[in-house]
Amino acid sequence: MRGIGKSFPGVRALDGVSLTLHAGEVLALVGENGAGKSTLMKVLAGAYQADEGEILIDGRPVQIAGPRAAEALGVGMIYQEFNLVPQFDAVDNIVLGSEPVARGLIDEKAASARAAAAFAELGIAFPLHVPAGRLSVAQQQLIEIAKVLSRKARIIVMDEPSAALTDREIDRLFDIIRSLKASGAGIVYISHRMEELPKIADRVTVLRDGRAIETRAQSAFPPDEIVQAMVGRKLDSHFPDLPAVAPGAEVVLDVRGLDRRPAVDGVSLRVRAGEILGIAGLVGAGRTEIMRSIAGADVPQAGVVSVDGAVVRVRRPSDAIEAGIAFITEDRKAQGLVLGMSVRENVTLAHLDQFLDRARLIDRRAEVAATQRFVESLNIRTPSTEQLVVNLSGGTQQKVVLAKWLVGRARVFLFDEPTRGIDIAAKSEIYALMIELLKNGAAIVMVSSELPEVLGMSHRILVVRDGRIAKEFAHADATPEAVIAAATGVAA
Amino acid sequence: MIDAVEKKNATRNYWLRIAGAVAALIVLVVAINTAAHGNFLQPANIVRVLQQISYNAILALGQTFVIITAGIDLSVGSLVAMCGVVMALFSNYAHLSGIPLVLATLAVGVAVGALAGWVNALPVVKLNIPPFITTLAMMEVALGLAFIFSHGRPIALNSDAFAGIGIGSFFGPVTDALHLPAIPIPVVWMTVLIVICSILLNKTRFGRYVFAIGGNEEAARLAGVAVARVKTFVYVISGACAAIVGFLYMARYSSGSPQTSTGDELLESIAAVVVGGTSLVGGRGSIVGTFFGALLIGVLYNAMNLLGVDSYLQKVVLGIVIALAVVGDELRKRYLSRA
Lengths: 492, 339
What we know:
The structure holds two protein chains of two kinds.
Chain A lengths: L1 E7 L2 E7 L8 E5 L6 H8 L7 E6 L2 E3 L4 H6 L2 E4 L11 H6 L5 E2 L2 E2 L1 H15 L14 H14 L4 E5 L7 H16 L3 E5 L6 H4 L2 E6 L2 E7 L5 H9 L19 E10 L3 E9 L3 E6 L5 H9 L6 E6 L2 E3 L4 H6 L2 E4 L3 H5 L6 H6 L15 H14 L16 H13 L5 E5 L7 H16 L3 E5 L3 H7 L2 E6 L2 E7 L5 H9 L4
Parallel strand pairs in A: 3-10, 3-11, 6-9, 9-10, 15-20, 15-21, 18-19, 19-20
Antiparallel strand pairs in A: 1-2, 1-4, 4-5, 7-8, 11-12, 13-14, 13-16, 16-17, 21-22
Helix pairs in contact in A: 4-5
Chain B lengths: L1 H34 L7 H26 L7 H18 L4 H30 L3 H20 L4 E2 L6 H5 L1 E2 L1 H6 L5 E2 H19 L1 H11 L1 H6 L4 H27 L1 E2 L8 H11 L11 H20 L4 H28 L1
Antiparallel strand pairs in B: 1-4, 2-3
Helix pairs in contact in B: 2-8, 2-9, 2-11, 2-12, 2-13, 3-4, 3-5, 3-11, 4-5, 4-11, 8-9, 9-11, 12-13
């Protein structure tokens, strides 16, 4: 790709970006949210048309007019949000749009054969006839990979493929990427996770503000220099210092014998004021389900939840909210926000009773004032309180979700993957905010799939396996190896 | 700074849209009026159009709430008929007269309509059954009941207490003194209900939750919104609106008939909502839009009648207008999201 430029109204998304990808290599594309990574890849995949610049494949200039043209040129794109039909099984998803046809009807045998061949190439056995919606995220991703393979893609773009995977699943993904590489494919790997790059990338290209800032061999590009290139300034430590929990701090959240089988099986935990309790474990171990049961998103079958010593009967989310429990869900778009509503409407949604005038009607001016305060204090990057949240970046959306819960007087904050898919600057801001909450006496439970985050941002760490608490670590004793061992049940 | 500019732009866009709509309406009206040799803009005709649209507009008001939650109420036409029949029976058997009879009858009708709405919502909120199905079932049940209760014949009202409501007017002395046509009671009902529904949708927590549920039901639930209660209430509102229309028809014809509003009324109520810019996928819509949607449909029918357009052709034109309105709205949205 040479000198690619692309503008949206008011934004110069790409400004003369050039990028080279060789056969048989993995090129990591890194940059903060909004740096232009996704836009650049969408140009390559034919989802967008570049305003300027040219694309050459095997040395020949090509026109990529649309997704089909990209596919014909051997470009395969695996988006962060998968494009699978959840009711379709692996076979139907893989052949979708290019179904083998015999005498006017879909040739089921040929379709199955094609899918089986793709998985054979990946070297894995796969349940071909289970609807995609019933498979795990990792399995769905394998379908996407098989799909691009079956279309003979030689340029494969993966947008944050590891974001939703556990460490073990990521290792398997890397094995697959290595074998794709060995077969001569060129792979563009987009990631926020610095620690992955040494394991998988051959070269690294950093994008910032729509420009390609620097490209180097991975081995010659240490992580702190990559981060520096991404943000354009030097960032010190990734995680802030955790303030120590006061010795006599009272227990704020006390959960005993929480059951929601099979995902949650007799979980008990206590969190004190000013403490962050990290929950680690593999995807599917029951981490999110524990949070959902405490927050009333799912109704637990048994168990007692107390806040500040008072027992809370949690039958629905509003019970938990009234008791001072705020649940910041892992999936902002599906569970945290009403995308078609404004920043103001989202921020006040959970606590509208605070914004009523004497006639019990919504006091819009009070809403705007409160929202404006959060826009300033949380540095929410939005042109106005009336902007629809669908138009905001991931990190900004996450701050809107936080603002929504800060409006209330919550004592307990349940953070599920608080920094998934958001850029480093926004991450730091969210960590700082968590520290701020601690200073105000809040108790925090945090689930995260990013091990460094759990290790760096928790006073104590619970490792969950098969719906039970497998092990507890103090901040000082928790090493990545020990936590992973507990999560996988490898060693005692 | 940016905030102020953005806000100014948003306000300007809003007024530009209103101005555009009004300008288009004026052009349309003037064109129709010219073609109809000045008959269209006569005060008597304007009042006639408003009276004609009031029934559909009231149905569409209730439908607006339902559709913003991404639901649909197919039972409204049948509920008009059933509530009309029930009210006629009640008024004939009740030992009341005059104003108490009228109020009691209205209360019974609204209660029946609201109850039907509650029944519509029950499987939707408890079992997650699509409202298309539950209200389709209610459409059949209510219509069948209307015929059973009435033995298939219109039930004539014994009392003349309703005459003033059906064909009466409001502010009679004032409008007479100004040499203007009297304002029919249904128009007054429509106006009052538009004001109430606007406040309900735009100014109350309930209204905000209606939008939130239509936009993202799960996010609303996790924010503590009592989703089941809010959803139930939108169907109750829709049922109550249908009952009010049944009441107005009953008063107008001095009878409750099982055949009232069982034709195009359902589809026209949905058309008014959609033409008024409310999204069928939920999360977006307005009461004022619905009124203008009903008005546009009413104006078109009236104009085509004045111009002597064949009634079959009228249907074709109406269908095309509905399609154009929705396409136009979509194009406008795309334009605005690019700009």
